[in-house]
Specification:
The protein is α+β, with helices and mostly antiparallel strands. Helix content is 37%, strand content 19%.
Length: 478
């Protein structure tokens, strides 16, 4: 009996030791996995976090590097006054305030997301040690962006004194060439103006980036999604016919075409080109809500955008909360509860122009040392292929029709081929005030450009947003 009891105690002890051993092995594997994940995935995200105190320590030994445009023009740099005090200088004042950001009154933009990068030096270790012995700081690395000064200035001038945003992107690479948000502020004088800026109302605040954080009803630009879903669900979409009487529905719930225009008997292409609200409300009422939502979510409705250098808000498209056909009809023409940001609203156009492939939008092209030697390059990345080639061609054809015979005719040009969709989005219930929208593209040879433009409270997209697109396209170096 004693022998059996001893054996049982021995087996129990062995089991307990094995359990402890396996637990330690599991913890070791988890820790090793975390280290690998950190080194391969989120190192930059964590090191560049503005809350990371290591940046403050590095700033004592390294002069923060510069932020440069795609052509090497200085967008932000460190300067030293006569007393040896360092401060950041922004040569273009408020033009890049929302993308480049600031370091005073809180870090924002690339100043925040690339802070650690610019406080890292690539000088030879021995040179670095000698500089520290001499009491001299080492130069930090420079961040070269995708931002183009010329296009950014054109977009800003074209937007003028209006509130709104302009995003310009290369569809085949995802490079953001311009991201303008107005009103803006001068980061050089942020400390003096801070209290005044805080007093601004939320509607007019210059502090937030309307291109990535401004949520607007997309208006008729959303008809691109309604059109695509209708094409997917109807094999004989080309046979669509509708007789427009200027409105659909009755009483206060009636959906009217802009200016009460009566389009008469129209097909799908003309309904899109002329932006017939009644026709598209009718189309939306017959769509499969689940499939429609899946389509929208493939272009980042209801989820974060695939851009990691700027704060952004998620566009929303929710058919589940719709109360009857009336709400669905409103959503089909980009009204109701549907909201988008100018950056998100460029994605469908970009994928269509790029043959169905969606590229990841990005702002940082490469990292260089102070002598201009490349340290790291960020190559274009495919996010997904949400469209077939045939769908991409169809969307381009419909957008082209909008320029040739529709609401964006002002974009007709002999130097490039343009297409797109205008929008006039009502944003106050019971009011005729509307945001002016245009999303579209221009192409010449193997070059292409996509734009997303919103002008707050201005009126129609054809009158206010299309002229901005025209100036951007005309100013591009084809």
């Amino acid at each position: 009996m004693e022998l059996k009891a001893e054996r049982r105690r021995s087996r129990q002890m062995n089991w307990e030791m094995a359990t402890v051993t396996y637990l330690f092995m599991l913890l070791f594997v988890l820790m090793a996995g975390y280290v690998i994940w950190f080194l391969s995935g989120d190192t930059d995200l964590i090191l560049n976090n503005p809350q990371n105190k290591r940046q403050d320590l590095l700033a004592e030994r390294v002069t923060k590097g510069s932020i440069l445009s795609d052509r090497g023009k200085v967008l932000a740099e460190t300067v030293t006054d006569d007393d040896g005090n360092e401060k950041r200088r922004y040569p273009y004042s408020g033009l890049f305030a929302h993308t480049v950001g600031r370091t005073s009154q809180g870090r924002t933009g690339l100043e925040a997301s690339e802070g650690y990068t610019m406080l890292t030096t690539a000088v030879h270790p021995m040179t670095g040690i000698l500089n520290e012995f001499k009491g001299e700081k080492n130069p930090g690395n420079n961040v070269v962006t995708t931002l183009n000064v010329k296009l950014s200035q054109i977009a800003s001038d074209a937007l003028g004194s209006h509130r709104g945003a302009v995003v310009v992107m290369e569809p085949d690479t995802g490079k953001i060439l311009a991201m303008v948000s107005k009103p803006t502020y001068n980061p050089n004088t942020i400390d003096f103006m801070w209290e005044k800026l805080l007093d601004e109302s939320e509607d007019s605040s210059p502090l937030y980036n309307r291109a990535t954080q401004g949520l607007y009803p997309p208006g008729s630009t959303f008809k691109l999604y309604t059109l695509l879903e209708y094409i997917r669900e109807n094999e004989h979409y080309d046979s669509f016919e509708y007789t427009c009487k200027g409105k659909i529905g009755k009483g206060k719930d009636a959906i009217k075409c802009y200016g009460n225009e009566v389009h008469g008997k129209i097909g799908l292409s003309r309904a899109f080109a002329k932006s017939c609200n009644a026709a598209f409300a009718q189309i939306g009422a017959g769509l499969d809500a689940s499939k429609w939502t899946d389509l929208c979510e493939s272009f980042y409705y209801n989820k974060p955008l695939p851009i990691d250098k700027l704060e952004n808000k998620s566009a929303t498209f929710q058919t589940s909360g719709a109360e009857g056909a009336g709400d669905i009809m409103q959503m089909a023409i980009g009204q109701g509860t549907t909201l988008t940001t100018p950056l998100q609203n460029i994605l469908l156009v970009s994928a269509a122009v790029n043959g169905g492939t969606l590229m990841k939008p990005y702002l940082v092209d490469r990292i260089e040392d102070t002598s201009g030697n490349e340290i790291k390059r960020f190559d274009p990345q495919q996010v997904s292929t949400p469209l077939t080639e045939q769908e991409a061609k169809l969307l381009k054809r419909y957008m082209r029709e909008t320029v040739e015979s529709g609401t964006a005719s002002a974009l007709g040009s002999s130097s490039y081929r343009a297409g797109g969709k205008t929008g006039s989005a009502q944003f106050k219930e019971g009011s005729t005030d509307s945001h002016a929208w245009f999303v579209g593209y221009a192409q010449k040879g193997d070059k292409s450009l996509a734009v997303s433009i919103v002008v707050e409270g201005a009126g129609t997209g054809s009158a206010y947003a299309v002229p901005i697109a025209r100036k951007v396209f005309d100013g591009y170096s084809w």
